[in-house]
Amino acid sequence: MFVCRSCVRRTLSPTAAESRLLVQPLQGTSTQRSFSGDSYTSPSLAPGKEKVAPTPPVDKSDPTAVAPRRAKDLQWIVKKHLQYLKDPLLIAEHILATLAKGKFDEALEVTRAASRDTAVSVSWNHLIDYQMKNQRLHAAVKLYNEMKKRAQLPDARTYTIIFRGCAESVHPKLAVSEAVRIYSTLMANERIKPTTIHLNAVLEVCARAGDLDSMFTIAQTANNALRSPNSQTYTIILNGLRHKPDVSRREGLSEEQVEMNNSHALEKARAIWDDIILRWKNAKLVIDEELVCAMGRLLMGGDRKDKDSILELLEQTMALPRLDKGAIAGSVNTTTAAPKAPHPRSPTASSAIHPKPSRNTLSLIMMSLQGTKKTSLAPKYWEHLTKVHSVEPDKDNYNKYLKVLQVGRASEKMANTIVAMPPAFFSPMTFRTGFSTCIHDELSPHAFQNACRIFDVMITKTRYPDPLAMRLFLQSARGNVRHHYEKHPKDEQAAKLSLGRQIVAGVDRLWQPFRILMSSFSYPEQPAKSPQGAWQMAERDVAEAMATARRIIAAMDKVTFEGMADEEICKILKSRRAILNRLVERYYEKEQNMAEKLGKALPVKERGGLDEDLVEVETGRRW
Fold it and tell me: CA dihedral in degrees (272, 318, 307, 309; nearest 10)?
């Protein structure tokens, strides 16, 4: 019998019902398990092709839907961590690592869960410290209270973290109230007693806030047992007294009230220093350099006698010799200075250990000499501390030393110091200070030569010269005229020619460095996206350079118009003057065009540069 192929395939293939029967046993297991669920729908009861609806995705924009899921995930993470973290030390290390990743919520939940059956005070300390470092004072105190509620006993480290965090808080008044309150509860604690570390930490909180009443109230809790005051204790108190006038100014008090507060602070400091010296002589206290300098900087806020007594203070505590040989020890404000320490050869000298001076002491001495105008002693003390005591000066030491030399108009010492300075310490103000000193050193016939030495250092040790410093150098060439007329008292023309040679030498030294300065504007380190942007980036610097160019032109005119040089030199000066004049004219034309494009109004007086600042420097009003 012949049958078509399609009929044979239809006969051999199973029917739809048979297909369902063949597939059904494969789903039997899952079907039987899903009968207990409410969401199961029997395939035989489902009409048509209806299927079980899938679980809708969570809308992450809906916090009410995301929060439960996050909470479940967090609980699962905490549970997994605690399966392997049983030792309190391991838990603390895990908390510290988790906080380093910024996962505070996870660290907090792990600590809470571990607190049920494990002592994890160190982990709580990490949490409190994390909140304190992030300036969350309320949150840190809240953690401290929760720690106690969960039967986790705070240790000495807990209170140290809280007090030090309060000292660094940006809300000083709130920090003082919290620190004093917690310190009071700690004083009444029978299990833990505050130590000198806690005392100093709370004193630091009060001192930084300027709350002297609270500071001295806390200081009265010191004793000779656990809270014996050390050098840091007295340093904090003296620094708090020193900063009180600044706090008074911020609070808007009048200058009279500020001066009165400063006088009271000095009186209290003297009384405290008497106690310091007494304890030092009795070997109950070790004085360090920080404490001595804290007292010295407090005296810097007083009058000239107080500033002068700093040298006696250093002789007393550090055994530094008095290099002002004409002064008699004890003749300068003996009421301000502290009582005498035992002589090094006396029987009690072994109990008085003298601290070794370093950079802090060197800066204090320079400040004292500048305040008392004893500038001639500055090189002596500088050499004594750097050579005898092997003090390696830093940038701040050099800057303070230069200021003292500037006050004393010691141009030669200034040049020697700048030549010996490390190039890393150079700044534009370094050379401005040096040239200003040479300008005012009118009595020295070598002032301009010293300025040339400083100028050579600026050219060779810096990338680009400072325009204002260049103008000051030119002013030193034009301003030091006295020795020329003293050298030729009866021949005015010879004096003018001598001065002219000096001005020409200064102009000639400026010529090539000025060209280097101008080339730096054509090739900036950070190229701009447009000509207008390039102009705005270099506008102030170019204005300074143009002010320098105008000063050079004025110096050339002085030499040529007053006949202070021969014709050959005047010819060279005129050609250079023409170049500078065209440069200045192009600058003002470009300035006008850029101002119109940017919609910027030019000032009434188109001066360009800091001429007003230069006048203040030359007259000494800024220094």
Answer: 80
